[in-house]
Amino acid sequence: MLVSFIAGVSAYGRAIQLCFKYKLWIYFLVPALLCILLGGGMIYGVWNVSDDLGNWMAGFWPFNWGKSWVDNVAQVFGGLAVGAFGFIIFRNLVLALAGPFMSLLSERVENRLRGQASATFNMSAFLSDMARGVRIALRLIVRELFFTILLFLLGLIPGLAILTTPMIFIVQAYYAGAGNLDFALERHFRVRDSVRFVRQYRGLAIGNGFVYLLLLLSVVGFLVALPLATIAATVETVKKIKQ
Q1: How far apart are the first and last CA of the chain?
Q2: Tens digits of per-residue pLDDT, 159-189?
Q3: How many separate domains does the chain show?
Q4: In 3-state terms, what secondary structure has residue 220?
Q5: Residue 138 zone, left/alpha/beta (φ > 0; ψ -120 to 50; rest)
Q6: CA 209, CA 103: separation in Å to the nearest integer?
Q7: pLDDT (tens digit per residue) in 13-49
Q8: What is the extent of the structural domain holding 167?
């Protein structure tokens, strides 16, 4: 698993090289615009909802003593909770909406790696990729939210927050990487077989998602995060399929 994780992280260096070699920058435009629009909406939503959630949580404290401390903790926890869940929704919306374009990017990269000519645009294939992307995104977001909520609840137990915080990041990295790997897997496997592939190489998914999340959380990196993650995932997925 560690070897696959390192491969998933190091593949980003190869992805940058391929961007320059094959002039793939046109594929960065759509996800960048989506990130700007959806990211702005997410920040606005988090800003408005976090205070309300914090006040609602603090309302369960029935005593006067310690109320100010509980209010402060509830505000912080409410902000973190809304921010985390908003980030999950934002990331999966970008994945679903930009998915067909990332599928085209992944296919072009794979053809280049295999020394084949790029396929012509096919509208039916484009729509099929969009439908599969929505299906995969829904599957991932449901499972990711379930485990994230579970870890958040465990984090409320004193002393466990120091463990659940990195675990939440690992869970998000895994599901983010799984979505990125699927852009290459969709040309070779059905959904069920793609899920098995990701489980077999979960270290690869976590490694890819780890760098992807760091880019999304950075000042400028979020503009190029999804295309780079798609190329990096395709490079390693093609290797595994060959093996």
Answers
A1: 16
A2: 776 888 889 899 999 999 999 999 999 888 8
A3: 1
A4: coil
A5: alpha
A6: 17
A7: 999 999 999 999 999 999 999 888 888 777 776 666 6
A8: 2-31+81-242
